[in-house]
Amino acid sequence: MFEDADDEDFEAIVASQEESQSSASASSSLSLVQKDKIERNRRKALALKLAREKIKDERTKEKDSGAGFFIPPEEDSNAKVHDSIEVEGRPAPFIGDGMPECIDCEDNFSESYLFTTFGHYVCDGCKENDHNRLITKTEAKKIFLLKDCDLDRREPPLKFIIKKNPHNPRWGEMKLYLRYQVESRAIDVWGSEEALEEEIAKMEGRKNIMKKRKFDKKIKELRMKVRGSLFTRKIDEGIHTHTFGEEVYDED
């Protein structure tokens, strides 16, 4: 917002610029310092003029509230939000000869949750089978020895659904994968089912070794405690304590 003082400064700058230009025409040549000063004054005057025009243009769009301030124009932000929302409907059920076949029971089905969500050819009657159940990302990595990149970055990325943690909603959301697809991905990563089972066996063997080491360590600590208590007991038993009888006065 510019006041009268700004107008005076603007007029002074323009006047000084005109004087500089007239003096420049009077003299045949100017020094570099004078030319630089003239250019700075010209740019400053132009910036003030553009700023004044911009504020004037904004004031024409604003609404005077009558309380000492202007109300900015309201933007229709809701329209942008609605335009960016894509509505994806549920796919229509299969009808007639085009119905897919379940890979478990070999029956045709028109609708399936696993087929719609994961693209897995299994009907709703067979989705409760163990290999068709959903597992968390932690279980997928622990059971099948996979990494995050094997699930989410390796082509094609595995599909998943997001649900809230049933144990505690504050723990964050869970990613649920289809066990059948995770197992297939593990076979692709390790080369074959036999190689996967061998690696799992090695992992279990290493876990058993670690468990045995922890068990032996606890047994050793327990033995040391028992030996220490026995040694303390022997010391206590080895101390002689003399028992005196009743005192008798001897006149001699």
TrEMBL record:
Any Pfam family the entry gives: XPA_C
InterPro entries recorded: DNA-bd_dom_put_sf, XPA/RAD14, XPA_C, XPA_sf, Znf_XPA_CS
Domain of life: Eukaryota
Regions annotated as coiled coil: none
Principal subcellular localization: nucleus
Disordered: region residues: 1-32
Record GO terms (molecular function): damaged DNA binding; zinc ion binding
Positions with biased composition (Acidic residues): 1-11
CDD domains the record matches: DBD_XPA (cd21076)
Localization per record: Nucleus
Keywords: DNA damage, DNA repair, DNA-binding, Metal-binding, Nucleus, Zinc, Zinc-finger
XPA C-terminal domain boundaries: 133-182
A GO biological process held by the record: nucleotide-excision repair, DNA damage recognition
One GO CC term, this protein: nucleotide-excision repair factor 1 complex
Sequence similarity: Belongs to the XPA family.
UniProt-recorded name of the protein: XPA C-terminal domain-containing protein
